What does this fold into?
Amino acid sequence: MENYEKELNEQQIDYLKLLAKQYPNINTASSEIINLQAILNLPKGTEHFLSDIHGEYEAFSHVLRNASGVIKNQIDAIFGGSLTDEEKKELATLIYYPEQKLELIAEKEENMDEWLKTTLKRLVYICKVMSSKYTRSKVRKALPKEFAYIIEELLHEDGNIAAKELYYSEIIESIIRLYQADRFITAIAHLIQRLAIDRLHVIGDVYDRGPNAAKVMDIISKYHSVDIQWGNHDISWMGAAAGCQALICNVLRIQARYANLDTIEEDYGINLIPLATFAMDTYADDPCERFIPKNAVELELDEKEKMLLAKMHKAITVMQFKYEAQIIRRNPQFKMEGRLLFDKINYEKGTIDLYGEEYPMNDIHFPTVDPEDPFELTDGEKLVMDKIKSSFVNSDKLQEHTRFLFSKGSVYTVYNSNLLFHGGVPMNEDGSLKEVEFMGEKYKGREYFDAVERAIRQGYFNKPHTDVKRRCMDIIWYMWCGEDSPLFGKQRMTTFEQYFVSDKKAHHEEKNPYYHLRNDENVCKGVLEAFGLDPEAGHIVNGHVPVKVKKGETPIKANGKLFVIDGGFSRAYQGETGIAGYTLIYNSHGLVLVSHEPFESTESAIAKETDIHSSTVALQYTNDRIRVKDTDNGKQLKKEIADLELLLRAYREGIIKEIE
It folds into this structure.
């Protein structure tokens, strides 16, 4: 005993005493060790990776409901040829949209009681199969409270025990007789959806372009297990919520560009009347042709709506460039003086000097720009921004969503041997990590990402009107569009040129070397190693840059070490990509990359049972099934087991007293 006591320092003994409060004797500690050892040998849960959702609520919701085809595949595997294709489609749609589908079935089904009895048994069986990879405790926690006991009984039905057959049949009969079948089916359908995805990874860009980013955030914020890697569009909204005027303008500009101001006004309760009034007065005689929403025809906007949106769009765009100029001027370390462009305009010739080359401009009507002091905001512009900024920082729902992004989000995540980040790692042309000067220090790789995240958090959480908050809010803006931003990663963002210069040569945005070097397996292994992962076993998962499938580009890079899963969830990109997004699935058998065709509509999915057509793009399956013991959670469980075994030994040696 004396030797054993020497092995433990006071800190360890104090820790074991705390652990003993939870496991007060040998029996309780032993039981927990047995439980944890058993969990280690269960198959790992299924992880789903999605990226660049861009407000496409319906498509995103459907992909979660059908678990990227996992549920449909389970139905095929379970029922095989015993059900027709039509029966399988109906069953799948019922699981995806139980409330709506039940209404349609009730209208056409002649013998509803018999249908309910058959369907309930099928759903219970599917749920039983899908819950088999989890502990009873985990499944119990996922059960809907109102039917928890009943579902648990049915899930552990043993068909081989004849004595209980009547018991289980009576449960089903009673559910139907008491008119609880619809509620029960809805509850078990949602449980199946939950069991199909153990953890969701969102690789950035929830916001912008699509019409329902707030609704997407509502789903994510209620999801049972999720992490988010911030994209540059998310950072733009987070900075706007913090009160950064340049990013408030940017958010409004993009929403106006895609006629999605309902997200601002209705979902987040932000009053845009001051902007609308200012824009109609200031740009009254300006047709604002370059600012008509990109989807005006698709949305069938009338002329009055188009003109109002176009004028608001131009007004906020001009204000954005002025506020950005203020940030650039007070941060010479950003090295972005080249983005100060209003002073490069020759109004007489109607041209602009861009990096030593003269380009004709398609619009030089800037009633609020003083050529003598082009970056100064007018009193009217300042008044509009003061009112809108107040709405942004005081929007309860926007702040709630932003705080969720901070609580579940980060610049990067390391999870189960995979490195997840939205954009890219600043890199030199030779594949080495670029050293970046940041807030007075030099960083590269993981250390740079960590420093960036600290600054972003300070920019949101610091007290208002402090130098630290202002400096860090400027950094949040830089992460939206700066050359060394790991969320953006291009030499410059040519927003000004895309509006005011027709020559597409001026629109080019040179990417960081990472974006072509990530095809090199050795480069990817170097990145994995820099972030503390095993370069042989690990993978990198990115979003940000849409994969142009139509042009033959593949989402799989570096011999399968890296996956780019931005395939075009956003409708705005689908003409360019040719598909409607990727989902990466990591289950107990390995990695599966799935591509999705465009989603028609929720109504069509329910009424016509038209699921998203998904195709397997790539497989990386292992010979041996991946168990919990092989995961990050498994490492933690092994540590807990080691601690408990140490506690057992302390009990047996008499160092800590047992409490019976």
Notes: Residues 1-5 have pLDDT under 50 and may be disordered. DSSP finds 28 helices and 17 strands in the chain.
